[in-house]
Each structure stands twice: as C-alpha cells, then as structure tokens.
Amino acid sequence: MNIHQFSAGFQLGDAISQEMLEIKRLLSKEGYNGKIFAENVFSYDRKYAEKLAKAKIKPNDVLVYHHSIHSEVLDFILKFPNRKILIYHNVTPEDFFTNYDLKFSYLLRKGREDLEIIRDTFHHSFAVSHFNLSELREIGFEHARLLPLHLNFLKWKDVPRDLKLKSFENPSFLFVGRIAPNKRQDDLIRFARTWKSKMGNQFSLRMLGFCNPNQQSYLDELNFMIHHLDLTKEVKIISYVDETMLKKIYSESNMFLSMSEHEGFCVPLMEAMYFHLPVVAFAAGAIPETLNQSGILFESKDFDSLVPLVDSIFKKTDLRNSVIGSQNIRLDEYLQSTSILPLLEVMRD
Hints:
Blueprint: E1 3-10, H1 15-29, E2 36-41, E3 50-51, E4 62-67, H2 72-78, E5 84-88, H3 102-121, E6 124-127, H4 130-138, E7 145-146, E8 172-176, H5 185-199, E9 204-208, H6 216-228, E10 235-238, H7 243-252, E11 255-258, H8 267-274, E12 279-282, H9 287-291, E13 296-298, H10 303-315, H11 317-337, H12 341-348
Parallel strand pairs: 1-2, 1-4, 2-3, 4-5, 5-6, 6-7, 8-9, 8-11, 9-10, 11-12, 12-13
Helix pairs in contact: 5-6, 5-10, 10-11
C-alpha cells in the first residue's frame, strides 16, 4: 500500500507543504511509502513534490488530500475508487481577495463548495484545528476528527535557545506569513506608523512572506504605504527565504506581531514561541485556539491603546518572562499532542 498526498500547490515554506513532508516522514517510519503531488510545484521544490500529472495510482493506494482552495487536484482524485482521506486546513473567505484578485477569490468560493463534494465522496475526514473541525461539522461532516499539525522543529535543533542571549533593548517586530489581504500586513504598517509617532524610530518591522504574482496590487499598496508614511528605514517586506535565513530572522527578532484576520491554525505563532519571541496577535480565526491562553491577544485594532501594551512587554522584564514562560508551556503541550496514530487507524480499519 502506498499513501500518496495531494494539495493544490507545494511550496517548501508554507504550512501545508511542511505538514505533507512531516506526514510522509512519519509514515515512512511506520513502513508506508508514498509521494507528494500538487497541481502547482516550483521547479526548485520538485525534489520534494511532483506535478499532479505524474501521479500513477494503484488499486490499493490511499489518497490523502489537503484542502485549502479549489484546484484540479480534487477532480483528479475523484476519478479513482481508492480510499480517500481529507485533511482540512481551512479555506480563506473569498471577500478578502475580491478587490485584488478575482480569479483567486473565485477559487476560494469554489473551494468552499468543494467541501460538500468531499463530504459525500471521501471515506474519512480530519481537520488540523478545532476551529476548522467546527466548520466541517457545520456542513455535515459528522465523523470528522482532529489531527493537529505536525511541527518539525528538528531542523532548528542547533539553535541556541538561551533566553538570556536575546536582546529586548530596541523593538524588532516580525510577522511571517503570505503577503495577502487576510494577513493584514497593511495594519502592521499602520501600527508601525503609530509606534513611530509615539515611541520614536529606534525599531524595525519585518514582514516575511511569499506574494502570489496575481496579487501584486496588494504588495504595491503595502510598498506605497511604507513610502507615504515615511517608514522606509524601519519597515521591510522580505520575500520568502530559505530555512537558514528564516532561522536567522527569527533569532534576530524580539516580538512576533500579527494583525491577521483569518487563520486556520497559524504555524508561525508556534515558530515564534520556539525562538522565545513574545507573541502579540489579533484574536481572529484559530489564533486564540493556537495560542491557548499564552501570548497576548487583542480584540480591537486601536493602535493608540496597543502601543503602550506592547511597550510594557519590552520594558517590564517580569511581564515579558511570564509571557514567554506561558508560551513555552503551550508549545511543549502542543508538540506532545501531535500523533500520526489517528491517520494510521483509519487506514487500517
């Protein structure tokens, strides 16, 4: 039996791709072979995943589909009578993209509609968070189960994690995530403008992520804001980098700040915890669940009120250590909660 995984796209830095690689690694340890296929695969990622057209399905193969948007992948999988398993990563509401990328907005709407087809044709269903699981159950996935994302921090096992080595003298804000309207990098820039007006210019904000070329207008809007608000020295947008550079940027930063308004889980929150960055995040989507009473949540984007709160984390060592301590507990608990066993159970029954 081969266990093949499928998704709309594969890009080494994104959460779904990392999850597919980790599941493949864990299944391999259990003696299962299988490949990763996607409709869209960058040439430099093809040592990890293959284009959908190369998939050769045998009668006993199990097909695991990671769903987040409409693509040709679902139609391909539905051609086969094989056992099919859904892993649901959430579909971003289309309205975020209507003003920037109509095609992408359409694919998201179709991605929501695809869930009803999946519900009626797949054998088993999982969601990577309770937030996502509740969405599935609302549309009739009665037997859907939770399968927490598998985070691979072994790649950073050589990172010094001594909190005493991290400087909190000058704020170095970081956000990691796709350059996309739902991530609200524009609100991060607005926060930076408020911070500069109240606290001065001894800070930096880096926003690290890949931008879909079809959403260039949103990136252009962000760059215009940075220039127009006189933030070119403090605020930088960095295209996605390799793991070595990502590790360096996390290590150099001293706070993770999120304005995102829709997340099905948000892996970078956990990465920030690993690097001892206090997390301050807007309470939207699955973010409260992911933080689980750690970090700092805020429910209003009142930046005049948020700036003093954030400043207190830099100035009050006890408060900062308490935040980081709660995050360390949350991270340890989460890593202990992940298991490949639920997936193995449905493949063996």
